[in-house]
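Lab manual, section 2.4: Encoding a predicted structure.

Procedure: take the sequence of the chain (245 residues), apply the prediction step described in section 2.3, and record the output as structure tokens. A sample record is shown.
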Amino acid sequence: MNRTTGSRLTRRLGALAVVTMAIALAFGLVFSPPEVAQRDAVRLMYLHLPTIAVAYLGFFITMVGSIVYLRNGSVFWDLVAGAAAEIGVVFSVFLIVSGALWGKPTWGVYWQWDPRLTSTTVMFLMYLGYLALRRLDLPPDVRSRRAAILGIVSFGNVIIVRYSVQWWRGLHQGQTLGVDTQLDGLMLFSLFLSLVAFLLVAAWLLIHRFRVAWLEHQLTRIGFERALAERRGDLGGGRVGEEAR
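Recorded output:
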């Protein structure tokens, strides 16, 4: 059984993520020009928007993994779902914090009960609850089934977050990227470079977190099988003793 989470692939992926992130920081902080209205505060966009994409992707993988687990009981997909949720929650923290820092120079306050901000907080709390459910002291199959159901249901709130600025009025600006994107030139390139860098980091983290979870699962299974074998040995020894008497 492999007892490490590193491999040639992950080392190369990690190196690529570091290099890409360094280049993205250079473009986002130095080469990209300030925005006309927000000036240098717009540079938070290169952190804020990629974290949204990574969080969405992590929770989407959780939903897919949960569906597959409920269909065929695949431990692999159950662990993938849990690892992806952890990545999504971590990046949701960066999302909320960077949004608050960007909100101060833009709106004059760090926080408003804006539909996007409120639904994002609910999303974060729901997946935090999902992770807490995965830690409950329950039979593994029961715990995984309940977590899978919650992982599927929780994705409904991700959709609400995504379309909240279109469905309700609020302080939050509309969609930045799209057919009518407000960005062009170096700003758009810097944003996509940041997105690629964050996705590479997320992929590296996801692989390692899954491998840790797989090792934990293997150790738990081995421990259970050993305890079961010892129990059977005790029972067998007891029967031998009774027969001898």
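Check your result against the sample. The chain has one domain: 13-202.
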